[in-house]
Amino acid sequence: MPSWTTLLLVVAGFVPSIVWLAIYLTNDSHPEPKSRLIKTFVMSLILALVAALAQELFVKSIRHFDPSYIFENSKIFYLWAAFVEEFIKFTAVFFIALRSVDFDEPVDAMIYMITAGLGFAALENTLFLFDSFNTSIHSGATVATGLTEAFKIWMLRFFGATLLHTLASGILGYFLALAWFYHHHSKKIITIGIIAATLFHFAFNLGFVLFDSSRSGYNVYAAFVSSSAVLGGMIVLVAILFYKIKMRTLASRSTVYLSTSIPVSTV
What we know:
This protein has one domain (3-266). By secondary structure, the chain is an all-alpha fold. Helix 2 (34-65) runs antiparallel to helix 3 (75-98). The longest helix has 34 residues, at 220-253. 78% of the residues lie in helices and 0% in strands. The protein contains 8 helices and no strands.
């Protein structure tokens, strides 16, 4: 693979995340330190490799008992994958931002979770682009054709999977923000948040599982519509949750003193 092609695919893989991050950060009236955001982004990107390993181990363990297992059609696999990915993104925020003095207001939870989601998506997008390109080349296609196929994947993931990761992380971020107000119940609240994010993530993937090409009755349009409907609902939900947390933060400032971080012992 030419070095310029490698660079192009890496840049293309990161562009969707950078664009969406710029959009989301415009909603933060008190911008977070760029260094902390970058660390959160990079940590989630690195931990994405752990998620990939966990998914691979899951498939191998299942195939140990059932060699005919096809994970591409498995609802169980996609539910597991959704949980692992949401938990990994939360882990990145926990270690990089949660115990930092920069984490000084509830709405920061959504900002850092969204940043983690985009870091995760950056690596995932890049891997998908390389996989698409290499598959095309190995089948005898030219470099130009390989890049064309990769670009198709890029377009789908720009408005699909990348947006999904940010929205699912935003939902979890809302519950993390709630934990700020209810310290004594933070573990329960965050657990509910991980479950909620996992279910929304799974609902998006479910559209493609139900209309998988290996089954009769395959319908690309139906898969696209069902998954787009989930994303549309998530966009509205996250926008509402973001607004609610901002308003609740403003209200609390006038009545109680906000601590500078969520007590680690309660999370």
